[in-house]
Design brief:
By secondary structure, the chain is an all-alpha fold. The chain is built from 7 helices and no strands.
Length: 172
């Protein structure tokens, strides 16, 4: 199948999805899919590598937290305080251990209600996640760059150079 045909088929499949909120079909022009599929393979691989790396980091940090919750929390506190274990005074070491132990105990007591991150950041996350106008703006700006994992420090990334380089015919 040619890219144009694939894009038309995907557009038809998308149209068949009825949005539960509006009770209307979802209209996405085939050009949108063509723009995505015309991107160099390197960009697509880069997105997958970043997502896989995030998954690996998440699993490692979760395992560390499960195995040594106090040391895990001490590490997070040190990072937040911009300190290293090597340059702590005795009173700082004691405060670190007490605070980390308190965090672990609070988490056990509060279970799912416990949040290590300040509620202000959690609320900002929820608000941002549910802001459909902002999401439309972010995805609209990045549509031509093929970046769907939003990273605030890479918002002004330059466009990929390989326009006529490698062909992307979906056959591997």
């Amino acid at each position: 199948m040619k890219i144009k045909e694939v894009c038309e088929n995907i557009s038809r499949m998308t149209y068949a999805y009825i949005n539960p909120d509006t009770k209307q079909p979802t209209v996405v022009p085939s050009k949108h899919y063509k723009d995505i599929l015309d991107q160099p393979v390197e960009v697509l691989v880069n997105d997958q590598v970043k997502k896989q790396f995030l998954n690996i980091m998440f699993k490692q940090m979760k395992a560390l937290k499960d195995e040594e919750p106090i040391l895990f929390n001490e590490t997070l506190l040190l990072m937040d305080l911009n300190k290293t274990p090597d340059n702590l005074e005795l009173n700082e070491e004691a405060a670190l251990k007490i605070t980390a132990t308190e965090l672990v105990e609070n988490e056990k007591a509060q279970k799912k209600k416990f949040h290590l991150i300040d509620n202000e950041y959690l609320n900002a996350y929820e608000s941002t996640k549910n802001d459909s106008e902002l999401m439309a703006q972010l995805f609209g700006e990045q549509q031509n760059e093929r970046i769907y994992s939003i990273e605030l420090d890479e918002m002004d990334m330059e466009k990929p150079k390989a326009k006529g380089g490698k062909s992307n015919d979906l056959q591997h």
